[in-house]
Amino acid sequence: MIFKLLIALLVAYAGWRVWKHGLGPAKPRRRAVAQAPGGDAGAARRLLGVDSAADEATIRAAHRRLMADAHPDRGGSAEQARALNAARDTLLGRAG
To answer: Which residue ranges does the record assign to the J domain (predicted)?
Structure first.
């Protein structure tokens, strides 16, 4: 009886893990285009997907949305995160 309960708990736990984390193919990640050295604003806008009239809030929102997939802690790469951070800094006028 205890053995059957233990098996049932293990199967339930495995099912929960599949439901929470999934076992299917990983979702496709957006690829970040490397930021040109020198802080090219046009390349930064294309990378973040904003236009030339974008204000600070729009730039920050686009950066946050893209970093959700590109952050190394979320399965992205450090190179993608660096490119997105550099693009944000370029558009916000920060020295980097």
So the answer is: 43-96
